[in-house]
Design a protein that fits this description.
The chain has 4 helices and no strands. Helices cover 82% and strands 0% of the residues. With 92 residues, the chain is mainly alpha-helical. α1 crosses α3 and α2 packs antiparallel against α3.
Length: 92
């Protein structure tokens, strides 16, 4: 499934609960809070899984609100990482 599909799913959720065009700064604050909770559950895989889901969903909400093309960015990032890490290691 495309990452943009998850972004759109998060957008559909926002529309259903009447939260479309919400404050991205607020979502970033929520993401910080979720990250702090994640750190608390680092040794509890089930709770950690839930926190990762919450964080991903918030990221998809932010991407929806900002109209980001996550697939395009993922592909660019994948290529950058390949060049920066994998090819560098192979060339050493």
């Amino acid at each position: 499934m495309s990452l943009n599909n998850y972004r759109d799913e998060a957008g559909d959720f926002l529309e259903k609960i009447g939260a479309k065009n919400s404050d991205i700064d607020g979502k970033v604050k929520m993401l910080e809070d979720e990250f702090n909770i994640l750190k608390e559950f680092i040794n509890e895989p089930n709770r950690m899984n839930h926190q990762v889901y919450d964080m991903l969903f918030l990221l998809f909400e932010i991407a929806y609100e900002a109209n980001f093309d996550i697939d395009a960015e993922w592909n660019k990032g994948r290529i950058r990482k390949q060049k920066k890490y994998v090819e560098q290691i192979l060339n050493d």
